[in-house]
Amino acid sequence: MQPIVIAPSILAANFARLGEETHNVLNAGANWIHFDVMDNHFVPNLSFGPMICEALRKDGVTAPIDVHLMVSPVETMIRDFAKAGASSITFHPEATLHVDRNIQLIKDLGCQAGLALNPATPLNCLDYILDKLDLILVMSVNPGFGGQSFIPSALTKIRDIRKKINETDLPIRLSVDGGVSEKNIASIYEAGADTFVAGSAIFAKPDYKHAIDSMKQAVSL
Ligand code: DX5
Ligand code: ZN
């Protein structure tokens, strides 16, 4: 298992002060910044694109930026986000006919490659490509919006993927995204996740450090 990562989703930040909010969560102890890209096509919502990622880099954000593409098609956005300073780029298998090719493209551009699995996406999408991935993102809500409730069946999926990862002996991260909070993070960790994306559970709180510390404490068993 990889060291624990807390990755606040800036989808839940105050967009009018995005740079400041991003620096604030990092100063509060966040490890990565989770960057949710929505296109009003693959998901029914619109967020932000590569120019905003680049602006955060220019504003001095040096922490890993974990780009979660909820867009279709994916190819152009992979290229643009790699240029804009993304550290990892994760896409959904339903968003492209060419999963293997796009994993390779992400790696060729010098980023870490991730695959995101929607709540009803079966695990056989990992067949033949698991060993090429740096990260698997289990969606514990249906993608498109922050602030939704955690879907309990995600725990079974996390356990099943953890087994598969352990069989490979590779340092593949297992990330969970959607409805993660200080209340359920311990059970998600016990199921086998090492990377925790949280939007509202951090940005809706008045004290980001307290929110992140509570999450870290809940998993330091
Ligand atoms: C959902 C996004 C999530 C979301 C998480 O489509 O991928 O990253 O912002 O937000 P919370 O933690 O509020 O569920
Ligand atoms: Zn996300």
UniProtKB/TrEMBL annotation:
Binds 1 divalent metal cation per subunit. Its EC number is 5.1.3.1. GO terms for cellular component: cytoplasm. The keyword Protease does not apply. A divalent metal cation binds at residues 34, 36, 68, 177. Pathway: Carbohydrate degradation. The keyword Calcium does not apply. It comes from the Bacteria. GO terms for molecular function: D-ribulose-phosphate 3-epimerase activity; metal ion binding. It catalyses: D-ribulose 5-phosphate = D-xylulose 5-phosphate. Its cofactor is a divalent metal cation; Co(2+); Mn(2+); Fe(2+). Keywords: Carbohydrate metabolism, Cobalt, Isomerase, Manganese, Metal-binding, Zinc. InterPro entries: Aldolase_TIM, Ribul_P_3_epim, Ribul_P_3_epim-like, RibuloseP-bd_barrel. Substrate binds at residues 9, 68, 144-147, 177-179, 199-200. It is an enzyme of class 5 (isomerase). One of its GO terms (biological process) is pentose catabolic process. Belongs to the ribulose-phosphate 3-epimerase family. Catalyzes the reversible epimerization of D-ribulose 5-phosphate to D-xylulose 5-phosphate. HAMAP family: RPE. This is Ribulose-phosphate 3-epimerase. It comes from Thorsellia anophelis DSM 18579.
